[in-house]
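JOB MANIFEST
job_type = single_chain_structure
chain_count = 1
residues = 233
[input]
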Amino acid sequence: MTTSTAKQAVPQQRATAPTPSEATGPSTELRVYLRIEGLQRQFAATLATPTRARGYPPKAGDHSLIVEVAPALAIQRVIDAALKATPEVEPGLLYVERQYGILEVHSRSAEVVEQAGQAILKTLNAKAEDQLRPKILYSDIIEEIGDQHAVILNRTRDGSMLLPGSALLVYEMAPALFAAVAANSAERVAPNLTLVDVQMIGAAGRLFISGDLASVTTARDEITRVLNDVIGR
C-alpha cells in the first residue's frame, strides 16, 4: 500500500514598488558643504553672472551655502529638501556635471541659509564635517605681468580685467568648489585686489587674483589659512 503526500502551494510575495520619495542606488556622498558669510562685492558679482547664477543672482552682503554631492543627479533631491524646508532661501546655481552635482543657495538672512543647510544635511544623513578636506595643489605670485600675458589671460576670464604691470596670484585646489570660499576670503582681507577669474566647477578650483604685490600676498596667505582650517575627512 502506498501513500501520497500532498504538495502545499507556497504563496509568493508580491514585490513592493518603491515610493516616489525613496532614492535608489548607492548612498549620496557629501563632498563639499561651504557656508560663506557675507558675500564680498566682487565675488558676489562673479557668482551672479549668467554663467554662474542660473537661478536667482546673489548680491553683496548675502549669506551663501554651496553644496557638492556625488552621484551628480542626487543634487535634485538636495535642492528639493532645501526649498521645501525653507522657501525663503533663493537658489542661485544648480549644476549637474559629469560626476558631481552642485547647488548654491543664498539669503540676506544667515538663519534662513542655516535652516536650508540643516534640511540638506538631514536628507543626506550627514554632518558638515563629513565633507572632504581641501587639498592645495599649487600657488604662485607672478610679479609685473607683461602685456602679452595679460592679453591672453583676459580672453578667457570671467571676472575683471587683468592689467599689465600688476602682480598675479594663481591658486589651485581640490575639490573645485573651495575656490568660492577662497575668493571671498581673499577679497575680505584685501578689498583693493581684482578678481580676474574664479573657476569653481570641475576637477580642480582655480583663482586668478591681481593687484599690488602686498595685496595679492595677503590674499594668498589668507586663502591658505582658510583652506587649512576646513574640517573634513
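[summary]
Residues 138 and 172 are 5 Å apart (CA to CA).
The beta strands are 29-36, 63-70, 90-96, 101-107, 135-142, 167-174, 194-199, 205-211.
exit_status = 0
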